[in-house]
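Most newcomers find our protein records easier to grasp once they have seen one. Read left to right, the backbone structure tokens trace the chain's path through space. Once this layout is familiar, the rest of the handout is easier to follow. The record below serves as our worked example for the rest of this section:


***
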Amino acid sequence: MSEEDKLAAEEQMIENEFQALINDYLNSNHRRKVEVITKAFNMAKEAHKGARRRSGEPYIMHPLAVARIVSREMGLGSTSISAALLHDVVEDTEYTVEDIQVIFGEKIAHIVDGLTKISHGMFGENVSAQAENFRKLLLTMSEDIRVILIKIADRLHNMRTLSSMTPAKQFKITGETLYIYAPLAHRLGLFAIKTELEELCFKYEHPEVYAELSQKVEETARERDQIYGSFAEPVIKALDKMNIEYEMRARVKSLYSIWKKMQAKGIDFSEVYDLFAVRIIFETYPGMDEKKQCWDIYSAITDIYKLRPDRIRDWVSHPKANGYQALHLTVMGPDGKWIEIQIRSRRMDDIAEKGFAAHWKYKENRIEEDNELDKWLKTIQEVLANPNPNAIDFLDTVKMNLFASEIFVFTPKGEIKTLPLGATALDFAYTIHTRVGDHCLGAKVNHTLVPLSEKLKSGDQVEILTSESQQPQREWLNYVTTAKARTKIEAALRRQRRRICESGQKMLEEFVGGPEQLDNTLYNKTLNYYKVEKREDLHYGLGSGELKLPDSMDKLLKQRESVEPKQDNLFVRYMKQAMSGFKKTSEENKGADAEVAVSQVKPGEIDRKAVYKLKEVNFKKNFIVASCCNPLPGDEVFGFITDKNEVEVHKRSCETGIKLKSRFGERIVATEWGDYKQYSFLSSIVFSGIDRIGILNTILSKLAEEIVVNIKSVNVTSKDGIFEGVFNVHVHSVEDVNVLISKIAKVDGVTTVHRALI
């Protein structure tokens, strides 16, 4: 194919994709504003002309794909579609936000500005640009929710096309996605998108496990179909008698959620019994009571099958904070297996799948894209009002409530408040009002006096006790789980500190004879006298009473002079330490094998784009094993370049690792295990079973039959005829652990054995 033919084919491909976008839009319930979408497309096409993605396709295909997600999968209208088409124009081309404002108006320009990333050059080395980007996104989002919805769509398309990226870039993007974007999608009720994001992350982070689970799910499809068939037959007969229009289908659990369950419980695939759930979706008609219909269907099912009472979830009467509504129940099926059933109306199903965006479809006035999740956005605004938040702390603060399951708590007057699972009485106080939280003395839960740290449960009635003399304490930060409470406490503590500092400064000024006497020379002498490095710390110490002023100025100056010759300033002390460390290192390295230097990584030596080989030479290794997850050779891992320019190795599933990927993506490297024959790694094997005399000796002798095991420690406990034990062993790889596990599993009486999930 000639170059001209290629270009013509690409032009046709772009045009087809644009027409598909227009068709998606015209099939929606939104006002017909095709002209603004066409104008945005033409501008984006011109702006990105000649640019290509890593995959080789024209760059304009990416904004088109994002716009289609925004339209087809989220149900948004012309403003959002236009902003999606233009979302990379300001960042990647000569166009400015002002240009977009002139052509498209303030709304679209504001959204595009929120979507435009902050330049990495604006931040110092130790500040997470990713966290700052996210903060800017939320600042804009608090005014217009469409910003975050388009950003999630952008991330979804990037995940769908991730295969063209380098492994290190893949880890960075999957880490960000799991830590920020999947929880955000969940919080906004975008269930289908949240599930797909998690599935794609799982596929790239753990390709072998993903492929293995896919195969197992496929292999068990026939068995699931049989279970569903025998369950569904009597239910269909009962529902048909009710004269309602409905559909019933089985929904298989996502591979990611299956794997998470296996990891959390330390079980095999064969032990995951709730592989699928049955979903019943019914149509509603004018005058029909949705809630009553849900309970009628519930009644029909429980007349056939026995109910598991502890598994009823009434999200119909009390919707989740993201708008999710459904009635969940679990029954014993005809084959003796528990089956989960979800009962929803068509409206509830749309909101469950498309989340926030679907609410517009069911508004009487059909206003385009004007609704907001007020309560949640208010919380975000309160967090953002924090005067000086650290970027990384901020990321954690916002994320704190994203994944949280919810509880429903009552005020003394019977008003319902929604809180995250694990919320305390102090969280509840701040939910009522900031002043109530700041002056909170204690609480009464169900008329019983409890401490501020008391964790609440659904159904609790809570009364807050206050006193004007009470002020927030630093230890309160240990009592709260909600972002709002934490933000308000931190702000109050800063105000307190500021007042104490001002008082201390006045005391010092009065002591030296007025503020004009307190020059830099005198300040430095005073700092040295108290051995304090910062003026703020000096003021705080004086104001709080931790530091006492001397009897006279002369005494301060004389003491300073007597001490001065013996004191090194900060720079000198630092240099002495540095030189001492250098001497020590030089002596240690004298006469050492040249190859051993592999453990001393020099600045600029690590190629972040290449795969870093994890190796050992003479019992020395060129990496650090992360203590948070204790990876072994054979585990799926990635590398993180520390401040000391060393490669720290984490499991890809490590929670700390996910945080690092989301915050410091540029410091992530792809890694590859070498062979380990000399260096050993510590691992733990957990086992349990029926207690009997001599079972531990049997296990140990079984292990000693064929292999030499270096056991560091053994801990075994027994209760009511059941024993539990932990072997801490030194191994060279995952393979060694698996061999040990298979040996232990063969011992009569052992029922479970697995590697400890650290």
